[in-house]
Amino acid sequence: MNFFKSNPRLTIPNKLIINKSNMTTVTTIDKVCANIGRLPLELRHAIFNCLTIDFRLEMLQAKKAQIIRTLFQAYTERLLNITALKRIVDKVIRCNFFYRKEPNADYLIQPPLKKWLPPLEFKQMDEISSTEHPVFKALLKIVIIPKIHGTINSKTLRRWPSQHALDALTKIVSCITKTWDIIPTITVPSGCLHQKNHGNCGDNFNYRIRKYTFNSICILNKFVSKFKVPLEERAVKKLKIAHMRYFKRSIIPKMRSTYRVMQRKLKLSAKKVAQETKLAAKVAKAAATKARKDAKAAATKAKKDAKAVDTKARKKNY
Ligand SMILES: [Zn+2]
Description:
Elements: H1 2-5, E1 15-20, E2 23-28, H2 29-36, H3 41-50, H4 53-59, H5 61-76, H6 82-97, E3 98-99, E4 108-109, H7 111-116, E5 120-124, E6 127-131, H8 134-143, H9 159-182, H10 201-225, H11 228-317
Antiparallel strand pairs: 1-2, 3-4, 5-6
Helix pairs in contact: 4-10, 5-9, 5-10, 6-9, 6-10
The site of zinc ion has 5 residues, from loops.
């Protein structure tokens, strides 16, 4: 365990090789992550402690992108307090590496790191000069948030203050991403730079800066986790509004026109029915008239016939 901790360079990126007596299994980080999550917490911690710091950092690769995405989403929804974020980033990133005795004073290297990498001493004009290890100069450019002027108004919806807030957020995020991307690649030679060789100072330094990076990812992951539920709620609300708008804009007008068309059809069919009824009535009336006429004619004829028969009979009797 300590062997791995003190040798951060002994890693195989993105692959974990498990030696089982005579067989070797190569498995991807995703597979390991998916299965570790199912284990009890104690076991999970035990496993994490056995993994190299580089491997653990690699396991958080997807988390890093997710954290940055959530930060921007939370700002868009005006849920993020940028000033609080700035304070946290300063605390979990910069403070591990550099500190200041007073505000606006120069940054000084934190003693635990300075302990591993002492200043380089050299003779110049018979005088002993010393300079800090160049890696600190590089670190200073990475872990410090670029200067943000004025106060940050994270809640405003007005154009210029929100532009300023977004600029501030971008500066903070640039510090975060630089730290997460660059620091795991910084490796000083293993061994000791002290005059008395007293251990593996270089590797200790390499491990320490990676561990700080790892911790900052975990802390910021916790920081953004509180936005998860409100962001989801907002997304659902937005979806509902979008559906309502769709309903109003395209379904209701369609309903109206459909209703109108139906009404017109109903009216037309009612008219048709009325016309047909009228026609039928006319036909019936005509038929009735004809029948009456026929009956009358028949009656007249019958009367005439009867009269004729009567006259004939009377003539016969004379
Ligand atoms: Zn040393």
